[in-house]
Amino acid sequence: MGKHSFLSASASHRWINCPPSARLCEEYEDRPSEYAQEGTDCHELCAYKVEKALGRRVKDPTENLTYYSQEMEDCADGYCAFVLEEVANARKRCADPLVLVEQRLDYSRYVGIEGSFGTGDCVIVSDGLLHIIDYKHGLGVLVSAEKNSQLSCYALGALDLFDGIYDIAQVSLTIYQPRRENVSTWTISVEPLMDWAEHTLKPKAEMAYQGEGDYVPGPWCTFCKAAVKCRARAEAKLQLAKYEFAMPPLLTDAEIEDILSRLPGLTKWAGEIEAYAQDAAIHHGKVWHGFKLVESRTNRKYTDEEAVIRAANAA
Predict the structure, then answer these.
(1) Quick one: pLDDT at residue 246?
(2) Among residues 265, 263, 232, which one has the least CA distance to residue 248?
(3) What pLDDT score was predicted for residue 1?
(4) How many CB atoms sit inside 10 A of residue 182's CB?
(5) In 125-252, which ranges are continuous DSSP H helix?
(6) DSSP assignment of 228-286, as one string?
(7) At 231, phi and psi to the nearest 5?
(8) Contact predicate 62/68, CB 8 Å
(9) E strand or H helix at 134, and its extent?
(10) Which residues of the chain have pLDDT under 50?
(11) Rounded Cα distance, 303 and 240, in Å
(12) CB-hemisphere CA count at 13 Å for 178?
């Protein structure tokens, strides 16, 4: 089994809303970005700090982190302090709550497909309450815990493990996103969570596994590997063509407002198409008829000329 499950919890927002995208994304290789690696590094640092604060023997990973910085240190410290506060709250309900860090959570039973799992950053289990805490290092997208499908999948996996040991009636889901100053918590009773699993998650998972259903463009396209070549997304973006490039004075206020609301997504999509075409031409020899590669020119300005002089003299 690979490192990532086919119906991963982290991608669940996409495959629940656009089931056939799961199979389509299989055709594209993973291309790790420096942002993803930075997030991985910070998760490792966060886990270390929490484990150490809980009195467990762990090795400091700092020297092996590629993107370690003071900002990352501060983010991890804040996360650790938050987790410890929640552990203290759990001890008010239960003398000995269970605290799990980087816990594998298998929710296969709830999607009907073996090998469906994810990793919970921190899971706190106490009498009456299961708390899932997920660290987000990203700056780009503000993440909400409310009805968050990724954390809901994690909760289902944790309930599968611990509901028979602890009498769990409610589940709290928390997103801790320090670089956006965002701490979002949503609490749901176990019964409606199970209802969502049975009537939403499982049917959508079955469709995704079979590659069935309609392609539905939306915010979930942001992290879809196939988004740049998705016809449904292209058709949605090109709906602006209905205005037939009319001169602005000929458009109504309502039409201009509609265009303005769509422009950010349209320009982002156009940039993705251009980047995809350039990558295919440069790295895979793709020929786009009517277009040719031209070496770009960049103008660089040194921010510290004295440092440049010293480096040149030393060389």
Answers:
(1) 55
(2) 263
(3) 34
(4) 14
(5) 149-162, 190-196, 202-210, 231-237
(6) GG-HHHHHHHGGGGGGTT--GGGS-HHHHHHHHHHHHHHHHHHHHHHHHHHHHHHHH--
(7) -70, -40
(8) yes
(9) strand 128-135
(10) 1-3, 298
(11) 42
(12) 18
Q: What are phi and psi of 169, to 5 degrees?
A: -110, -30
Residue 246, token pair as written in the block:
């009319």
Give φ, ψ of 242 to 5 degrees. Answer: -65, -20
Q: Which helix (H) or strand (E) holds 128?
A: strand 128-135
Distance CA(272)–CA(270), nearest Å, equals 5
Instruction: Please tell me the number of Cα atoms within 13 Å of 295 on its side-chain side.
Output: 0
Q: Cβ distance 111 to 150 under 8 Å?
A: no
SS3 91: helix
Q: pLDDT at position 134, please?
A: 98
Q: How far is CA 37 from the centre of its chain?
A: 13
Looking at residue 167, its pLDDT comes to 87
* Token duo for residue 117: 């799992």
Q: How many CB atoms lie within 10 A of CB 196?
A: 17
- In eight-state DSSP terms, residue 104 is E
pLDDT tens-digit profile of 51-85?
A: 999 999 999 999 999 999 999 999 999 999 999 99
- In angstroms, the CA 173 to CA 152 distance is 8
